[in-house]
Fold:
Amino acid sequence: MCRNIHTLHNFEPAATSDEVHAAALQYVRKIAGTTKPSKANQGAFDEAVHEIAHITQHLLDALVTNAPPKNREVEAEKARARAAGRYAA
Structure:
């Protein structure tokens, strides 16, 4: 489930709110042990996703680095190359 959480810090352009929300959603799904909460737990699930996304954005805004920003396309190509090597027939 958490394979969809990717590093969001130090990219150009910066992580979008959608990316932050997706990471928060994956985290809550992993912690809760479910991808779809019951109706009784939906409110708590949604609130947790919202709060985690909010604090994650604060974290990303506060982090500093001297390293140059990474290029999203270059990093995505590296990931595809690694996956191709792993899953080659």
